[in-house]
C-alpha cells in the first residue's frame, strides 16, 4: 500500500504526481506482468545474457544494424 504525505495547502495534482512516481518506483505493474505467464529459468537467463551483450556492444561502438 502506497501512502502519500500531503500538506493541507498542497494541490491535488501535485499529490497525484507524487503517487504516480511512487507507484512507478515500486514496480508493481512489472511484477503483475511477470506473474501473468511463467517463463522458464533458462529463457530468463538467455534474455539477460543477450541484453548484456547488446549493452556491451553499444558501449564499445561495435553495434551493427
From TrEMBL:
Coiled-coil segments on the chain, per record: none
GO molecular function terms noted in the UniProt entry: structural constituent of ribosome
Family annotation (InterPro entries): Ribosomal_bS21, Ribosomal_bS21_sf
Keyword field: Ribonucleoprotein, Ribosomal protein
GO terms under cellular component: ribonucleoprotein complex; ribosome
Any one GO biological process: translation
Family: Belongs to the bacterial ribosomal protein bS21 family.
Protein name in UniProt: Small ribosomal subunit protein bS21
Taxonomic source organism: Flavipsychrobacter stenotrophus
Originating gene: rpsU
Amino acid at each position: 500500500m502506497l501512502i502519500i504525505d500531503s500538506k493541507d495547502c498542497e494541490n491535488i495534482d501535485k499529490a497525484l504526481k507524487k503517487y504516480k512516481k511512487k507507484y512507478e518506483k515500486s514496480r508493481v505493474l512489472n511484477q503483475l506482468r511477470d506473474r501473468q505467464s511463467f517463463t522458464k529459468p533458462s529463457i530468463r537467463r538467455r534474455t539477460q545474457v543477450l541484453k548484456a551483450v547488446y549493452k556491451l556492444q553499444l558501449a564499445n561502438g561495435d553495434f551493427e544494424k
